[in-house]
Design goal:
The chain has helices at residues 3-18, 36-52, 67-79, 98-104, 123-134, 154-163, 177-185, 243-265; strands at 26-31, 55-60, 85-88, 143-147, 167-171, 189-192, 210-213, 217-219, 222-224, 235-236. The chain has 266 residues and is of the alpha/beta class. Helix 6 links the parallel strand 4 (143-147) and strand 5 (167-171). The relative contact order is 0.15. The structure holds NADPH dihydro-nicotinamide-adenine-dinucleotide phosphate.
């Protein structure tokens, strides 16, 4: 199934599930920047929420807001029982301690899944795992190579694949070429989250390999992935219309999960 069709199907399921509740889940999106990319992402998130029946509140603060004041605002939403999910859109104003801001969000409202104590999985890894499940990928014992080790994608994805009993290799900027080529040649699943156009292009890979392209690289208004299109593989996720859609879907799922947990507590 294409990623687009999978996402549509999953959104329908979420919508049907939410229609059986008398209240709506509520997501608060905090923005403290004037970044056009952020505006586009936020518009997309709000539209997704509307599509499935989640209430979304977009709260904007001036870029001059102090870290203390932003932390106080996060605290206010943490204490607001009508809020199920809370996220702070990046980039943050310059000089802010991003770790401190991230970790100020209550773990049970942390729908981005960035808090170390969050019960929810980070959105991009979650989307990838869910999609691979839908594609009947059998994780057990498979060799998965993850290129990139950021806390948003690479590390949580590697750890999620390990949980699924894959044998996981993590490559990063200090990995030497020989090792990289050897690991890629034996990989059943290759996930690239580097942020460089067509980073994976001509390396030898198994024709049966599954390629997951996380990268989003903008050049002259066009989006490119981290993997050259048209590799000879069993499956290659497209960019655009690939992992980005899965990430958006996971956010909705995390909001619904936080909402259901709150419902079961009250
Ligand atoms: P980061 O810049 O935080 O991490 C990039 C990673 O790539 C680092 O771990 C770095 O290694 C590694 N790297 C850089 N050069 C090489 C190299 N030559 N060989 C091997 N590894 C290398 O990026 P993110 O993880 O945040 O994002 C990666 C990409 O994914 C970006 O294009 C981003 O836009 C996209 N993205 C897409 C999402 C989606 O929903 N589709 C969601 C999030 C991100 P080292 O640690 O050694 O520096």
């Amino acid at each position: 199934m294409t990623i687009k069709a999978f996402v549509e199907q999953e959104k329908k399921t979420l919508k049907t599930k939410l229609s059986s509740f008398s209240t709506q889940p509520h997501l608060v999106i905090i923005q403290a920047n004037e970044n056009e990319g952020s505006n586009i992402y936020i518009r997309g998130k709000i539209q997704d929420c509307e599509d499935v029946g989640i209430k979304a509140t977009h709260v904007r603060y001036p870029i001059t807001i102090t870290q203390n004041d932003l932390l106080k605002e996060i605290q206010r939403f943490n204490e607001d029982d009508s809020v199920d999910g809370l996220l702070v859109q990046v980039p943050l104003p310059e000089g802010m301690d991003s770790k401190m801001i991230r970790e100020a969000i209550l773990p049970q409202k942390d729908v981005d899944g960035f808090h170390p104590l969050s019960s929810m999985m980070a959105c991009t890894p979650k989307g990838i795992i869910d999609y691979l499940h839908a594609e009947n990928f059998s994780f057990n014992g498979k060799h998965a190579v993850v290129i990139g080790r950021s806390f948003i994608v690479g590390k949580p994805l590697a750890s999620a694949l390990l949980e699924k009993d894959c044998t996981v290799s993590i490559l990063h900027s200090k990995t030497d070429l020989l090792t990289k080529h050897a690991l890629l040649a034996s990989a059943d699943l290759i996930c690239v989250a580097v942020g460089k156009k067509w980073f994976l292009s001509d390396e030898k890979i198994k024709p049966s390999a599954i390629l997951v392209d996380v990268g989003i690289n903008r050049e002259d208004g066009t989006l490119f992935g981290d993997i050259k299109p048209g590799r000879h593989a069993a499956l290659q996720t497209p960019v655009p219309g690939g992992v980005g859609l899965l990430t958006r879907l996971s956010l909705l799922k995390n909001v619904v999960e936080a909402f259901e947990k709150r419902q079961s507590r009250s």
